[in-house]
Amino acid sequence: MGGLDSRHMITHLGMADRVLSLTTVGTPHRGTAFADWGVRCFSRLVCPVFEFFGLPYQAFRDLTTARCRAFNDEAPDAPGVRYFSVAGRFHADWLAPQWQLPAAIVEHREGPNDGVVSVESARYGEVCDVWEGDHMNLVNWAHPLGPTFAHSPDRSADYGRIVCRLADAGF
């Protein structure tokens, strides 16, 4: 959700003159079918529990496809800022059970995804790189089974390529 927060900051908090480019990683620019499903199926059950414990839950509602559509209308790109994105493509299997339910829901409604955000929802700006990996791996969080696990490649080189592309573009 950091990508949406960054777009809000650029558009609404007077930061456009301080930002030359924004590269979002696994950001649900068009929302996620998993949030739609979760709000539809569980909000009446889960929200009261969250409220009882004083836990915020609005962020999940903010990631629905309808809310992100409204966000995109409210947060147009700032002139002079260049936008880029990274999306993930991941196939959940028995070694990654935490992604099986959300990935299946998103796959059914939106196609290839990183476990929670579809490639199409993450696609934003001039260039969208698509990396093989789950949502957490895109930000270089290692899988608990270790760095040699197939679902957990080191992303340092991928981030290096982003920096080089920005440098080549004059940033």
Walkthrough of the structure:
By secondary structure, the chain is mainly alpha-helical. It has one domain: Rossmann fold. 46% of the residues lie in helices and 11% in strands. The chain contains eight helices and three strands. It has helices spanning 2-12, 33-52, 58-62, 65-74, 100-110, 119-122, 135-138, 156-168, and strands at residues 21-25, 82-89, 128-132. It has a three-stranded parallel beta sheet. The chain is globular and about 50 Å long. The model has no long low-confidence stretch (mean pLDDT 88).
H/E topology pattern: HEHHHEHHEHH
Report how far the terminal alpha carbons are from each other: 24 Å
- Rg estimate, integer Å: 17 Å
Please report which band the strand proportion falls in: under 5%, 5-15%, 15-25%, 25-35%, 35-45% or over 45%: 5-15%
| Spatial strand order of the main sheet | 1-2-3
Instruction: Give the class-level CATH name.
Output: Alpha Beta
- The CATH topology assignment is Rossmann fold
| Helix run count | 8
- Give a quick account of the main beta sheet: strands, pairing sense, barrel closure: 3 strands, parallel
Q: What is the overall silhouette?
A: globular
Q: Would you tell me the overall average pLDDT?
A: 88
How many beta-strand segments? 3
Helix content: 40-55%
Spans of 5+ residues with little confidence (pLDDT < 50)?
Answer: none
Number of domains: 1
Task: State the CATH architecture.
Answer: 3-Layer(aba) Sandwich
**Based on the structure, what is the oligomeric state of the protein chains?**
single chain
Structural class: mainly alpha
The CATH homologous superfamily name equals Alpha/Beta hydrolase fold, catalytic domain
